[in-house]
Amino acid sequence: MGREKPQQPSSASAAAAASFTVEQLVAVNPYNPDILPDLENFVNEQAASKTYNLDANLCLLRLYQFEPDRMSTQIVARILVKALMAMPAPDFSLCLFLIPERVQMEDQFKTLIVLSHYLETARFRQFWDEAAKSRHLLEVVPGFEQAIQAYAIHVLSLTYQTVPRSVLAEAINKEGLSLDKFLEHHAANSGWVVEKGNGKGQLITLPSNEFNHPELKKSAADGIPFEHITRIFPILG
């Protein structure tokens, strides 16, 4: 193609410009194998700049189906790691569906599938133990640990009004001073209420939501403004 390859983004604006260009390519040439190098470069840019574009990654995986000899397993692995970081969105399953079974049988992909299963079933201790054995696969994508910790907190918030320190520590793989600093940060910025002391029995109260406080779901439904309802009627009609 007559287009210059995008350079590694040096700023958020550069990453946004690269994203816009790739989105144009995907929209105009979704089945053109000539855009394979651009999409592969874009996967690496997503990893380096902590950005994410599921549509571009799915397009690349579809192109690999038509051009199996050009498949880069390293790129595919990075796509799956980024998809894990997007949980609870179902991105990992969407990507895996486009990856041939023979490729899924490679050790690195079997590991990622196991990690996905642990996350989906909230078995965080098993997840972190397995992840520790696969750092070479995961650490090439900056922000992985923080993304999974955010997902773990999301899962806990669906279940707990107050969560024991030991349960939180296992879910986010932090303990001691590191956990103390983590709790201080969320107490200051996320509305957490942390019981004084730092023993294993310490309780952390999480912000209320319609899942850990079901009564909020009813009050939210009752509180839909009438003008919103009247806007829906023409759509339904």
From TrEMBL:
Which family is annotated? Belongs to the eIF-3 subunit K family.
One GO MF term: RNA binding
Q: Which keywords appear in this protein's UniProt record, sorted alphabetically?
A: Cytoplasm, Initiation factor, Protein biosynthesis
**Which part of the chain is the PCI domain?**
52-211
Q: How does it assemble?
A: Component of the eukaryotic translation initiation factor 3 (eIF-3) complex.
At the top level of its lineage, which domain of life is listed? Eukaryota
Q: Which InterPro entries match?
A: ARM-type_fold, CSN8_PSD8_EIF3K, eIF3k, PCI_dom, Transl_init_fac_sub12_N_euk, WH-like_DNA-bd_sf, WH_DNA-bd_sf
Q: Does the keyword ATP-binding apply?
A: no
Could you tell me what this protein is called? Eukaryotic translation initiation factor 3 subunit K
Q: Which Gene3D superfamilies match?
A: ARM repeat, domain 1, Winged helix-like DNA-binding domain superfamily/Winged helix DNA-binding domain
Keyword Protein biosynthesis in record: yes
What are the record's GO terms for cellular component?
eukaryotic 43S preinitiation complex; eukaryotic 48S preinitiation complex; eukaryotic translation initiation factor 3 complex
Q: Which SUPFAM superfamilies match?
A: ARM repeat, Winged helix' DNA-binding domain
What HAMAP family has UniProt attached to this entry? eIF3k
Q: Where is this gene product found? A: Cytoplasm
